[in-house]
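Before relying on records like the one below, remember that each one covers exactly one chain. Contacts with other chains, cofactors or solvent are not represented anywhere in the record.
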Amino acid sequence: MSPRQMLWILALLLLLLAGWQFLRALWLGRASAPQSGPASAAMADEAGGEGDDGDGFDYAPQPRPAVSAPLAPEPAAPAADVFRAELEVSHLRRELEAQQALIALQRTEIEALRAEAAGLRQQLEEAMLAQPSTSPEYSEALRFAEQGYTAEEIAARCGITVAEAGLVLSLARTGGTRP
């Protein structure tokens, strides 16, 4: 059997199932249509034959009002339910107060952290301003140059080349290290 034939058979089965469901709906609609008693007579009078063309099929059935007993007042809630509700409300209030206290504590901690961060930021800015304008590698060489050492002596003591020591000496003579 080819897949095409299987699809045709499946479509036919689905069509038969849909037809069966349609016939069942018609049959159930007719079985529930005849009502006995004064309620059905009142319904027929209210509808006035609307939606019924006389062939037994109701194209637009009118909604049928539900028959209900006269409304009785609801019984008062038992005392246990009221007590349980009040207990739950008081428990929720305590939880709310605890959460509010926790929020207040967190707010104070946040403010303290902000103040500490501002202080650290200010210290960092002050430290940046206080740093020397020369490289730390050459600060010792610069001190030796200010004390009057020669380029060869500075190079030997600081471990730099003679050319670098000469540059440090020229900086010290011109006063280029001071802002």
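Residues 79-130 form the longest helix (52 residues).
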